[in-house]
Prior knowledge:
The protein folds into 2 domains: 3-108 and 268-391, 3-Layer(bba) Sandwich (FAD/NAD(P)-binding domain), CATH 3.50.50; 114-266, FAD/NAD(P)-binding domain (3-Layer(bba) Sandwich), CATH 3.50.50.100. It contains 11 helices and 20 strands. It has helices at residues 12-20, 43-47, 60-63, 126-145, 149-155, 165-181, 211-224, 271-279, 325-343, 372-381, 388-391, and strands at residues 3-8, 26-32, 70-74, 77-81, 86-89, 94-96, 99-102, 107-108, 157-161, 195-200, 226-230, 232-238, 241-246, 253-257, 260-263, 267-268, 290-291, 297-298, 301-306, 311-312.
Amino acid sequence: MKKQVVIIGGGFGGLRAARALKASPVDVTLIDRRNYPLFQPLLYQVATGSLSPGDVAAPLRSVLSRQKNTRVLLGDVVDVDPASRRVVLADGAEFPYDALIVAAGSQSSYYGHDNWRQWAPSLKSVEEATTIRHKIFYAFEVAERLSDPAQRRAWLTFVIVGAGATGVELAGALAEIARQTLKNDFRSIHPEEARIILIDGAPRVLPPFPEDLSRKAERSLTKLGVQVKTGVMVKQIDKEGLVFATQNNAGTDERLDARTVIWAGGVTVPAFAKTLAKRMNAATDKTGRIKVNADLTVPGHPETFVIGDLAVASGPDGKPLPGVAQVAMQQGTYSAKVIVRRLRGQKAPPPFKYLDKGNLAVIGRASPGPDLQSRLTAHHRRRCFGLQLRSGDRAGDHCAPEGDSIRTVMTTAGSR
């Protein structure tokens, strides 16, 4: 009987691990609460109307349809039993494993203020992206009908909380919508006068990037008309706007009326990660991410790999690797390689080493750099799920079969 490999999560890391096991003598079961992998780096374009949801998602079964040793199951994994080596789904179903790869990703963190979510949606799912798109365009429509200057100004004020890659790209795209796309579409308002404000508690935008690139990004945003406020801490978000305080002016709160607030702040681990850590007695960092060995396994559980956003793995400099697509994909390939070598009785590969291929933040269509939109279109003409757009992978590495459609039925476990 073939060994059973269970992969939890069909995102960058999980999908790459499954594909790396294509020719291996194992049976692979990939379980995800969605039936499609999501290219999150381009969700901001769905939120601003540049792309449709089907452009950033493709059916998992189509992507893996030619991989006969792999099955895809829709389900929400809620527990794991390391002793019997079984994972448990929310509906009670259980699946045994000889090797387990956990690539469950992350979710938005409101830093203990989850009640803000109803007023400031985050950008981690297709559903949230379409909600944000509705909020953005609805704001312009409401402003068109208002005569009161104060109310109109509030509806034409857009605040993005979080100046990481998502926040920066979203701010740039939103500025282009207001100043170019919608410029001539209204009669009572001037969309180009909309205020797009990007705020963050850090001292600069794009904190993970080198300082010179951070400064360049801020100049590009300013040129597009985006107001950048750094060193700012949000104190409250409600239906009418938000309250914030500037760190260098402690004790003074400022109210900003804005009918559209978008959360692009931090991330945290899903509930399953906490369960996994408890069941395996694994050490975690302060955010709940699991500390793994050099071969990405959980200490004391060599059959269990944790990759991507859930893993605390160090780079050559000793610092934790960032939660980006490139890391997850390389870890997915590596974990699959370890499993195959064990099956063949071969020597274990060297410890995981991340090859940094660079990061990309796109700030408006006029910004320097490759034309991401045209590359995406070209890849979709080949029916590709373009995971390589930000990762540096070669084109076609994640292509679905030539005849498949890119259209996706958006289904999540537990939804109707």
